[in-house]
């Protein structure tokens, strides 16, 4: 008898229903506020996306911030291959290619060096290795502007001014602090016994690296690659200072496009170009973001 | 020819002296246990034998070769780690192959070695699994397998059983002993567990504060401990140490101890014929199993029996035997009794002390007299 009536009494319990109502109201408030802020945050991106598909006259007529009343891919095509930037009228294609040719090698090289550094600084410590590591860490906190003059000097000496190779060199060196930090902190958590066992097994420095350390590394390598890729792709200062014209990476070219000397502002082409420039890092995030978060928190929670 | 010998070995980490003149020798096929409390230097010694730590001064010989500056891979050793140190990304088989690949052993020989060891340790069905998919006992087995495939001259074990639960530890202990009997390789085995050392070793080196306190066969270490540290470390519960004084007693020597009621009790030494200085302070060491409830029949069985009465302060039954804490003078002693006829709390028991097995120690040097 008592069991049978239990559900109905519970449903009618005034305190329980009140609590339930408060809970729902709370949720609505939370999600409402979150939605408003999400929208605010998304508006600039939406404006750019909309404008990239609008005709220029339509933008002029309806204003920059508005829903599209026309739709065309023209701006994307122009931005990619025919719009006049700086000297030539080949769009930003060459600059995009420059950025790819710059970012991929620089990412791979700096990650590889970082992994090797991390391996040495965690598993083959030598007298003074902690000092070396501390010095490398300083690079993490050093603003890029500080290094502008030295780099100008070095690139000049090496005859690498205004070249992709010069930028690759800069990003490899500048990136090593981060990649070394990431990898070293990850490798420190790999038990030393593994290395000892491998040494007794007859493996040397490189065999241990290839066969034991690297197979354990994907979580941290993904973090490092994403970090380096987005950092180098989005980097602007070195690109705009040390290269010009057809050698410029896309970030520098986008600025040139905005200040092209033409009086008419081509909002739709600019928007499309910005989006083209933003796509690769976004893509990398979508593909690897899950691992990125996981990798960064590894060791912190375990 | 000795399989391993260590001469006058020292190790410093900065200003800290970890090993202070270690001498050790393992004959061919011997099972040597290095036992001692945490921080006694036993693991450091093993790491130095393996070549994972450098030698400060002294010599390490493996076979007829001085190996002080020989890298670990060229010492012809294999090691089993406390953490097992299995390569996590490789399968069991790859783990076992790793060492042979690094040494360039020909493929057919590799396969043959894997088959032999997998069969020996009965891990054939685990070969394709990764270490993460194995239980503690299986990992332990694989770690031993990895050491065995290489057929080295010397096996090193670094506390291999301390990560296992109590039941499995006893099982694996037996397996290691069987394995050693079958394989017959010289083995150096580090442990902090004196029972492991006693059961496995052909000789035990008891270490404390960077020195070998005693290096002898297990029973000798147990029966005639070289000093109070060894006496207290080997055996559980520990040996009882009772302050006493040597006295002359009608041609034989005895010791007097302070009894419970403030008086003294006199215990005749079993082989105490003369020659010892009367009046000298000593420490009497008696193992818990050498204390009995006294009755007249016992005297006939145990010729060295002396009696002592003591109040029982605490009784701890463990099932197979019952431990009793009793008071002698101002110290507590522990006795190990058969559950039938064990002392009861509050009882004033008359103890038979088997003086034939008792040890006497010099109070200042703590050495066996």
Explain this structure to me?
The complex is a heterodimer of chains A (302) and B (369). Chain A has a domain at 93-297: MetI-like (MetI-like fold), CATH 1.10.3720. Chain A contains 14 helices and no strands. Chain A has helices at residues 2-12, 14-52, 56-62, 74-82, 93-123, 129-141, 148-157, 164-187, 192-201, 205-213, 218-234, 237-242, 250-258, 267-297. In chain A, helix 4 (74-82) packs across helix 14 (267-297) and helix 6 packs across helix 8. The two termini of chain A are 49 Å apart. By secondary structure, chain B is of the alpha+beta class. Chain B has helices at residues 42-50, 92-102, 107-121, 136-148, 166-183, 194-200, 218-223, 228-233, 296-301, and strands at 2-13, 16-27, 31-35, 57-62, 65-66, 77-80, 154-158, 186-191, 203-208, 211-216, 240-249, 252-258, 264-273, 281-286, 291-293, 305-317, 322-328, 331-337, 348-354, 359-361. Chain B is elongated, with a radius of gyration of 25 Å. Classes of the chains: A mainly alpha (302), B alpha+beta (369).
Please name the defining characteristics of this protein.
heterodimer; A: 302 residues; mainly alpha; MetI-like fold; 75% helix; flat; disordered N terminus; B: 369 residues; alpha+beta; Rossmann fold; OB fold (Dihydrolipoamide Acetyltransferase, E2P); 2 domains; 6-stranded mixed sheet; 5-stranded antiparallel sheet; 20 strands; elongated
Topology:
The complex is a heterodimer of chains A (about 300) and B (about 375).
Chain A: H1 2-12, H2 14-52, H3 56-62, H4 74-82, H5 93-123, H6 129-141, H7 148-157, H8 164-187, H9 192-201, H10 205-213, H11 218-234, H12 237-242, H13 250-258, H14 267-297
Helix pairs in contact in A: 2-14, 4-14, 5-8, 5-11, 5-13, 6-8, 8-11, 11-14, 13-14
Chain B: E1 2-13, E2 16-27, E3 31-35, H1 42-50, E4 57-62, E5 65-66, E6 77-80, H2 92-102, H3 107-121, H4 136-148, E7 154-158, H5 166-183, E8 186-191, H6 194-200, E9 203-208, E10 211-216, H7 218-223, H8 228-233, E11 240-249, E12 252-258, E13 264-273, E14 281-286, E15 291-293, H9 296-301, E16 305-317, E17 322-328, E18 331-337, E19 348-354, E20 359-361
Parallel strand pairs in B: 3-8, 3-9, 6-7, 7-8
Antiparallel strand pairs in B: 1-2, 1-4, 4-5, 9-10, 11-12, 11-14, 12-13, 14-20, 15-19, 16-17, 16-19, 17-18
């Amino acid at each position: 008898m008592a069991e049978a009536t239990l559900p109905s009494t519970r449903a009618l319990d005034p305190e329980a229903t009140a609590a339930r109502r408060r809970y729902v109201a709370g949720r609505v408030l939370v999600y409402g506020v979150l939605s408003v802020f999400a929208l605010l945050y998304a508006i600039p991106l939406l404006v750019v996306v909309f404008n990239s598909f609008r005709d220029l006259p339509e933008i002029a007529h309806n204003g920059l911030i508005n829903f599209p009343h026309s739709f065309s891919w023209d701006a994307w095509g122009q931005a990619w291959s025919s719009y006049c930037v700086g000297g030539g009228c080949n769009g930003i294609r060459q600059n995009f290619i420059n950025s790819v040719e710059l970012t991929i090698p620089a990412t791979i090289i700096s990650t590889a060096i970082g992994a090797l550094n991390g391996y040495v600084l965690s598993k083959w410590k030598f007298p003074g290795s902690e000092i070396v590591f501390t010095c490398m860490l300083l690079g993490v906190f050093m603003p890029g502007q500080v290094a502008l003059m030295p780099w100008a000097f070095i690139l000049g000496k090496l005859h690498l001014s205004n070249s992709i190779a010069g930028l690759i060199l800069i990003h490899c060196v500048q990136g090593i602090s981060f990649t070394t930090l990431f990898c070293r902190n990850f490798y420190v958590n790999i038990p030393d016994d593994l290395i000892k066992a491998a040494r007794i097994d007859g493996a040397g420095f490189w065999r241990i690296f290839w066969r034991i350390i690297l197979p354990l590394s994907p979580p941290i390598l993904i973090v490092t690659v994403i970090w380096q890729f987005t950092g180098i792709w989005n980097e602007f200062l070195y690109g705009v200072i040390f290269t010009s014209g057809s050698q410029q990476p896309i970030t520098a070219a986008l600025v040139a496009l905005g200040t092209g000397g033409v009086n008419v502002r081509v909002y739709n082409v600019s928007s499309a170009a910005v989006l083209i420039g933003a796509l690769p890092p976004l893509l990398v995030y979508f593909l690897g973001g899950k691992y990125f978060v996981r990798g960064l928190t590894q060791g912190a929670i375990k | 020819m000795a399989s391993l010998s260590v001469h006058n070995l020292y190790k410093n980490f900065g200003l800290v002296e970890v090993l202070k003149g270690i001498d050790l020798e393992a004959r061919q096929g011997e099972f040597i246990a290095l036992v001692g409390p945490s921080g006694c230097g036993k693991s450091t010694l093993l790491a130095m034998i393996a070549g994972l730590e450098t030698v400060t001064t002294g010599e390490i010989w493996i076979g007829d070769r001085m190996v002080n500056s020989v890298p670990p891979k060229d010492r012809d050793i294999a090691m089993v780690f406390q953490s097992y140190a299995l390569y996590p990304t490789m399968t069991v088989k790859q783990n076992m192959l790793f060492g042979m690949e690094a040494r360039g052993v020909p493929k057919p020989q590799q396969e043959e070695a894997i088959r032999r060891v997998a069969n020996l340790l009965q891990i054939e069905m685990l070969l394709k699994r990764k270490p993460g998919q194995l239980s503690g006992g299986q990992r332990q087995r694989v770690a031993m397998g990895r050491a065995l495939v290489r057929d080295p001259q010397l096996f090193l074990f670094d506390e291999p059983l301390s990560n296992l639960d109590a039941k499995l530890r006893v099982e694996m202990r037996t397996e290691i002993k069987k394995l050693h009997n079958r394989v017959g390789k010289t083995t150096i085995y580090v442990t902090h567990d004196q029972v492991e050392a006693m059961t496995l070793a052909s000789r035990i080196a008891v270490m404390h504060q960077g020195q070998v306190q005693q290096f002898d066969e297990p029973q000798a270490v147990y029966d005639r401990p070289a000093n109070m540290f060894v006496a207290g470390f080997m055996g559980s519960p520990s040996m009882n140490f009772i302050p006493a004084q040597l006295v002359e007693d009608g041609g034989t020597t005895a010791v007097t101890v302070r009894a419970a009621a403030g008086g003294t009790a006199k215990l005749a030494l079993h082989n105490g014929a003369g020659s010892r200085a009367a009046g000298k302070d000593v420490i009497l060491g008696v193992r818990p199993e050498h204390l009995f409830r006294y009755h007249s029949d016992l005297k006939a069985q145990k010729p060295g029996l002396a009696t002592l009465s003591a109040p029982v302060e605490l009784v701890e039954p463990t099932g197979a035997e019952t431990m009793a804490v009793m008071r002698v003078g101002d110290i507590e002693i522990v006795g190990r009794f058969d559950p039938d006829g064990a002392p009861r709390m509050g009882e004033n028991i008359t103890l038979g002390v088997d003086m034939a097995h008792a040890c006497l120690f010099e109070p200042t040097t703590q050495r066996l007299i």
